[in-house]
Amino acid sequence: MRRIPATTWKLITQTVGTCLRYRVTGLAAEGAFFAILSLPPLIFGLAGSIGFIASRYFEVETIEDIKIQIADLAARALTDDSVKTVIVPTLNQVLNGGRPDVISIGFVLALWSGSRALNVFVDTITIMYGMGGKRGIVRTRALSFSLYCAALVIGVIVLPLVLAGPDAVEALLPHRLDFLNQLYWPVVTILSAGFLNTLYHLSVPVRTPWVSDLPGSFLALSIWILGSFVLRWILQSTVGGTSIYGPLAAPIAVLMWLYMTAIAVLIGAALNAVVDRLWPHKARREAAEPVMKAEPDPHHDDEPLTPGELRPEVKLARTVEAMSPGSPVDPPGHAVGYPSNDAPEKELSIPEKPAVEKPPAGKPTPAVAKPAARAPRAEKPAEAKAEPAPVGPAEEPPARADADKVVQANRTESTPS
């Protein structure tokens, strides 16, 4: 770890921490679920849309190449019998002039489900930048639906070119420009990174330069390419024969691929958020500050706070700080309503006793003057105690003695002789 630069190590650790904090794996599973839910009607809707364009602007040979490419891709996940009896006949019906009936209610539902998957990405990217709730639920949903529809339109135009492959590009180019055919896949990779970077750029409520989101785009694309090769190798080595999942093997493989794609996209967004935190952009920082002051974290169940209002735990922390002498009530850089993530936590410290300096070795210990002995206290003279009077028979009062004599005399007189 010592050989890794401090900045690179900080980027790695904070990116991993951001992914763990915002549950990237769980949100990726949610996005993959909605994506696979919308996949079947979406494929038929795209095929029906491509049929209108391919029949008008492409030759018959190009359409046949598109069918072959789609069949080859389907054969990697499905059985040969399923491809011959289901996939190929469907493509023949859809791509030959287009099928308007497949662009129906199922296609509209696919648009809604697919935009729900994209909404997970947009919402998570916004939260990673500390701007959760700034755009609002309705605007976020509308943005997700608009981006998804725009991506479908671009896909309808670009997908035939990608499926046709370099052969179609080579047929369109003159012989002296054949060397450009070698740039086919690099150009496709760069365009894919550009589309992904546009997603990062539009997901954040505050716009920054488009180039500032490129690190996350290239990281996500690298993870996606590497993960696709690894996933394909694992599936080929473990599901080469009869699978324990039976007919669910192909859908599970597609779900795993979509899950890996979603994780790659969210990891790239986490890297961009960390880069923005370490080297903040002025416009984005100014826009995020009032949100951090007034709005709660979407992952907490607290009620919304008004501007200037403090959360209960912040009030308690500031009260404790105010009671301790010499401690500031508002530390610098502390956001109103929320404790600062960058401010270090204070620890209670116990004052230590001053260390006694020891004399260096070889020198005699200096004599310490002893305090003078105190003079003995003067004793007070003993006070003479009064001796108690001797206890004798108590004298009876005279009135009682006379009464006893009278009673005794009466008894003597009454006694018979």
Structure description:
Its main location: membrane. This is Membrane protein. The chain crosses the membrane at residues 31-54, 102-122, 142-163, 183-202, 214-235, 255-275. It is a multi-pass membrane protein. Pfam families: Virul_fac_BrkB. This protein is mostly helical. It has a domain at 6-37 and 104-282. It has 14 helices and no strands. It has helices at 6-21, 24-37, 39-57, 60-75, 80-95, 105-128, 137-164, 166-172, 184-203, 214-238, 249-278, 282-294, 312-323, 398-414. Helix 3 crosses helix 7 (137-164), helix 9 crosses helix 10 and helix 10 (214-238) runs antiparallel to helix 11. It is elongated, with a radius of gyration of 45 Å. The termini are far apart.
> Helix proportion of residues, in percent?
55-70%
**What would you call the shape?**
elongated
Low-confidence stretches: 294-303, 324-345
Strand runs, count:
0
Please outline what is shown here.
With 417 residues, this protein is mainly α.
What keyword list fits this structure?
single chain, mainly alpha, 62% helix, elongated
Task: Indicate the topology.
Layout: H1 6-21, H2 24-37, H3 39-57, H4 60-75, H5 80-95, H6 105-128, H7 137-164, H8 166-172, H9 184-203, H10 214-238, H11 249-278, H12 282-294, H13 312-323, H14 398-414
Helix pairs in contact: 1-11, 2-6, 2-11, 3-6, 3-7, 4-5, 6-7, 6-9, 6-11, 9-10, 10-11
